[in-house]
Design goal:
Layout: H1 2-6, E1 12-17, E2 19-22, E3 30-39, E4 41-42, E5 45-46, E6 54-63, E7 66-73, H2 77-85, E8 127-131, E9 134-138, E10 143-147, E11 154-159, E12 168-169, E13 174-175, E14 181-190, E15 193-201, H3 206-210, E16 220-226, E17 240-241, E18 246-247, E19 253-255, H4 257-266, E20 274-276, E21 287-288, E22 298-301, E23 307-310, E24 318-322, E25 334-342, E26 345-353, E27 358-362, E28 367-369, E29 373-376, E30 386-394, E31 402-407, E32 413-418, E33 428-433, E34 457-461
Antiparallel strand pairs: 1-7, 2-32, 3-6, 3-33, 4-5, 6-7, 8-9, 9-10, 10-11, 12-14, 13-14, 14-15, 15-16, 17-18, 19-20, 21-22, 22-23, 24-25, 25-26, 26-27, 27-34, 28-30, 29-30, 30-31, 31-32
Bound molecules: fe (ii) ion (FE2).
GO biological process, one term: carotene catabolic process
Family: Belongs to the carotenoid oxygenase family.
Keywords: Iron, Metal-binding
Length: 464
Amino acid sequence: MDVLFSRDKKEQPEPVKARVTGKIPTWLQGILLRNGPGMHTVGETRYNHWFDGLALLHSFTIRDGEVYYRSKYLRSDTYNANIEANRIVVSEFGTMAYPDPCKNIFSKAFSYLSHTIPEFTDNCLINIMKCGEDFYATTETNYFRKINPQTLETLEKVDYRKYVAVNLATAHPHYDAAGNVLNIGTAIVDKGKTKYVLFKIPATVPEDRMKGKSPLKRTEVLCSIASRSLLSPSYYHSFGITENYIVFLEQPFNMDILKMATAYIRGTSWASCLAFHKEEKNAEVGSNLIKLASTTARALKENDDQVYCQPEMLYEGVELPRINYAHNGKRYRYVFAAKVEWSPIPTKILKYDILTKSSLQWEEDDCWLAEPLFVPTPGAEDEDDGIILSVVISSDPQKPPFLLILDAKSFTEQARAYVDVEVHLDLHGLFIPDTDFDSGKQAPSQEVQDSASDCHVVSETRRA
Ligand SMILES: [Fe+2]
């Protein structure tokens, strides 16, 4: 089992045709583009944490009922330096690396000794961001990498600090109705202050595009929020938006900046510089700001104007949740997520109805499933009118990996596309409809001849 997680995967840069069973909806045309760790050892060295692995991009191109798969390692500076040295020379979240002092290229690393903020990795393995017409691989440092979503080629390295003063930013930006990117980052000890900075990158500006100018140049700070602590800002993986507000939770899971600054000398990883600080607090009972009848979660406004939140546990063991993004920031009813039976293996995907607290599940023996991604049917009226895409790998070596396509309403299988090459367990991604590309169709058309395959749908109702 461990092998599926930690084995280094071969890239497959040339597209391979998948064997399709079932019927792919004719309207489904585009590229499912995903990201995740694919290489866990370099030479004799091994990463300590699964989140440290080198980014392996992969894609399923779906056109006229046919599916083509390809994968390619992100040629980050981190990847190139590691491969050149034949060992891990750039530190990641759970692995502190010690570069070869003889090589000038690594001299930057020694600035760790004299700078509070370390030089971070550009191994962007977490997510894909759409910014105007461009696509980027993202992680949680100040770096992100432009990529070609069709060939998976790595393009330029981008440093957020050129456009907005942040040392870290989430890998999970939001998009408003106009396609502008909204994100949040942390400025560490900047002019004597540590703050969270909310910023907006506009969708393509036509006159800029004519001149070949990136929308990044028009990045705009929306607001900044002072951290409660100069040297222990909160770690956050994402944030929320509504139609009128951005919701940021300064949770008591903190980064210890002094520990981070000395981690290199102390020989510990940055992961060890994160700690949960439980705050014992007697909440004054105030008015409940949550007015939804369908939840027992409460947000009590206290006398000191702070809000004390009490969650409602809807479902245990849920990871990688997605919704119909057209409902982001608005009232929504359905959550699609991976279900982890025993950590950290997702063996099911589920559709959860937060109104009725009921769920539908899809599972199959020996199958491990990726984040389920919702794609709406063109002209959809219902929130769940669309399909779910998930990548499935099997712990049974006889069973090839496949792209799973479910009807999002009934959670029944529509089709699957088997590929005869290695596929890795990934993290996040997005679907790019062909209409988002200037250049339209690229793959030949062919009738789908195979019949639908077996699937297992389990209906389940439970109370949270
Ligand atoms: Fe994530």
